[in-house]
Design goal:
single chain; 2 domains; 46% helix
């Protein structure tokens, strides 16, 4: 007897080793154990009410403003494949989409439209929800979905992180074409990842407008960005840069001298001296006595140097 999709899911979630061997199986286990979902149950994704959707769009207004042109760009590259583009908030609710008019009815039937909840808790393993749950780019191809009624789709997703390193969105390309191949999925995945990184970069640059922005790594692995003020103190770092330099994954962090992270310092002797003084003050958290001790000088001498170098007390 040929096993159905539901049989395979139940066999996997009951296995003591499947989740350790496969990320998809681990997500199936979460869907079953943590969320109590029945893979045979057929229901369209829950829709938030219109008032809630308006509030969520308003909360994501800045993100949507910057992301919409990127959605148009991505859609222009993949529309001919019969695929659609969607942007969700961090909870998996679809905020915006791009679909060909001839395909809208089909995607609406799938529940891929603004206002629908595609979190893993609501729909089990799927591109949007699992991307958000695992905070990584991924492909959920057809029968890798948890719910049996979703196995006709291929979903390709990448997370979007905000200027503070926190997860803010998922960028999704979905297709219900029966002839969608894994090689085409991989090609689209590269586009989705590139556009998600560009959205992150746009958000970061807008947030730290007026500051010097440094790129510190390969863009293919994320937006590696640092925001540096006029005193060469790092005041912001993207998610990928935080991972590279061992900074807190998200939220506020203690300001750090740029040279402590990258070795970069202003040119010239005076620039080097200024950088050294700023580093000492920053490391000391603004405690001038401690900063003076690190520099091997007296507090009064430190204040004289600060005045000469144009450094204000922090």
């Amino acid at each position: 007897m040929i096993k159905t999709h539901v049989d395979r899911v139940f066999e996997s979630v009951q296995s003591s080793t499947a989740a350790a061997r496969s990320a998809v199986a681990a997500s199936w286990r979460r869907s079953f154990d943590r969320y109590g979902l029945d893979p045979s149950q057929r229901q369209r994704p829950r829709a938030v009410d219109d008032r809630t959707l308006v509030r969520q769009k308003e909360a994501a207004g800045h993100l949507l403003h910057l992301a919409e042109p990127r959605l148009d760009e991505l859609y222009g590259m993949i529309a001919h494949c019969g695929a659609a583009v969607f942007l969700t908030d961090r909870d998996g609710v679809v905020l915006s989409g791009r679909t060909r008019s001839g395909d809208q009815a089909a995607f609406r039937e799938w529940g891929l439209e603004p206002g629908r909840d595609w979190s893993e808790a609501a729909q089990g393993t799927n591109g949007i929800g699992t991307c958000l749950a695992e905070r990584r780019a991924l492909i959920i191809h057809r029968d890798e979905h948890y719910m049996a009624h979703n196995i006709g789709m291929s979903c390709i997703d990448a997370p979007v992180f905000g200027p503070d390193g926190a997860l803010v969105a998922a960028l999704d390309v979905s297709s219900a074409r029966a002839d969608q191949t894994e090689s085409l999925n991989q090609l689209i995945a590269a586009m989705v990842t590139r556009l998600s990184i560009q959205i992150e970069t746009d958000l970061f640059r807008a947030h730290f407008r007026g500051q010097r922005i440094l790129m510190t790594g390969e863009e293919t692995t994320g937006a590696h960005l640092l925001a540096v003020d006029s005193d060469d103190i790092v005041i912001g770092a993207s998610r990928a840069a935080r991972q590279s330099f061992g900074i807190a994954r998200e939220g506020a962090f203690d300001r750090k001298p740029l040279r402590d992270l990258t070795g970069e310092a202003p040119g010239g002797l005076e620039g080097a001296e200024r950088s050294a003084v700023l580093r000492a003050i920053t490391r000391a958290g603004g405690n001038m006595s401690e900063a003076a001790r690190e520099l091997g000088i007296g507090r009064a001498t430190l204040y004289r140097r600060m005045k000469r170098l144009g450094i204000g007390e922090r």
